[in-house]
Amino acid sequence: MIGRNIEHYKIVEILGKGGMGVVYKAFDLKLERFVALKILNSDLLSNPHFLERFKREAKHQAKLNHPNIVPVYGFAEENGILGIIMEYVPGETVESLIKRLGRLELQYALSIVKQVLAGIGYAHSKGFIHRDIKPSNIILNNEGIVKIMDFGISKSVTEGRALTKTGTKIGTILYMSPEQVKAKEPTTQSDIYSLGITFFEMLVGKAPFDTGTDYEIMEAHLKKNPPRVSSLIASIPPAVDTIIAKAMHKSLAKRYTTCEDFLDDVNRLSIELLKVKPEKARKKTKPKTNVKQKNFLTGDKRVTTIKQKSKYYLWFSLTILLFAGLIYFVYSTVSNIWKNDNYITKIKDKGKNTYVSNPAYILKSNWVKIESPTDENLNSITFINSTVGFSCGSNGVILKTTNSGDTWTLSDSSTSNILYKIDFSDDLNGIAVGEKGTILLTNNGGNSWEKITTKAFSSLFDFQYINGTSIVVAVGANGTIIRSEDGGYTWNRISTSINKLLYSVKFINENTGIIVGWDGEVLQSDNAGKTWRVITKFTTYYLRSIDFVSEDTGFIVGGGGEIYKTTNGGSSWKQIPSNTISGLLNIKFIDDKNGFIVGNKGELLTTSDAGEHWAEISSGTFSTLKSVATNDNKSIFIAGNGGLILKNTLKSN
Questions:
Q1: Does residue 132 have an active-site annotation?
Q2: Which of these CATH numbers, 1.10.10.10, 3.40.1440.10, 3.40.50.300, 1.10.510.10, describes 92-324?
Q3: Most exposed: 179, 304, 396, 415, by fewest CB within 10 Å?
């Protein structure tokens, strides 16, 4: 099907497969935009019941107009092929996030749950039930906005039961409500139960009843209570257990009746996490966007009166649409300056802030957006001199510039694996590492890349050349630490007791190196990376990036927005104040005074006094920012999601 035209839609690639058909990314030749095209399996076309269900799906979704729901544009029908045209949402599903990160931080999970509640609450007010809420049906788009996908088995509450056979179990078994297990008609509370399971999985990394046979899973839905998350993860407060328990209660009478009830408790938890007076916090969290929308349901909370609330939803939806239109207008006006880009991978959402109040969410910026030849996520950027630089990212993308970053071209990496880090030891020799243990080497200045075979099969996130030597140390998933003494051609795995994600490595001299990772893991080496010892934890949050401004003074940034500082070469660390509302992904000092921190909501922090003070400035984008680099001309570059490359010039002090 790839390359084929169906009506005026040209099929580009496969996005996924489901029980009813295949979802393709397609290009609308008339409107010149990408769409998602869901094509029904050919063996179902002769079945009138499936055809009726398929068309009903499109009609249902077309009635749902909400920022947190993927909209339907229409049908495509040609030569025995039937498909639904939907919005194409570039980003990452919650399922993918969990697989990649292991689990999500509490604030991040809460921000997702709030948006899902807004979406399904709206759908409920219109008389629709999703009936298959799960991580794979929730995606975060380019601006970090949650979109609920696949209302394909949703059913109008007011439509009656003629098209749903009694006794048919609808939904994925791990997320199925007790009433669905019993083959009873799902209600709006069934969606709430499934979201409770999804919330649990985001926090723990695994669904609560993901053990045993299908029968045992269904029995668990009927008879067992979910484990207490606070007993599994020390940093989770008991209030989370209470919320999940109520969302997943076996009895409909004791389960949350509406999404509004659920959201009220989620908002109260967010306020408690802020450690401020509830009244003050509520005032600060007055809804400005759907992300923080609290009162999207009003009036009587009973499901039986759900139709009576639709008029309130109408006004809420109109408000959201008007706001979205305003943002789109502003975006169009300044599109030559900035661009909203890919999904958020980690959010430290402190409740009192909305997307609009994010300091990064400012249109005016001194950063210039450089035209990029790709829309893939860029994870790393580096320069080897004043003119030549490289960037790498998803789908094996490697970009190269030879004119000081003004223009970039695609290079052949001969891999489709995600590349997380690229760097050079000199003008000719460089390394790129990525998922599944990918290691690429070049000895000709990036003109060609050679794939190196190692015994490391886990994803590699970072590496560093030890200055003045041919020694390289790389770190990755499952506690992976590998070391090379010949510039990256051969590698040996270093054994440790750690089996968690290790994100970043930094050597402060030829012998001393520090590694940081998941759950506050810190390791240190004093012999050029030959052996590593585990340092006593000073936090349980995940640590994302480390850099030093001198042998004594260094900084670590975390996925929860934390910043830690050492003044004794890493012997001890102290958290310093941070008002950021997003996960911090990378820290980079470009000299002995100037440093940058980037985050996943477009946040940008800078220092000009070796980290004594950090200031939040506008990046001009709300995209996820991944990596910082400088060239010999003192130009600063930032790479991020959606092919984003920003450029600025360091001011002289």
A1: yes
A2: 1.10.510.10
A3: 304
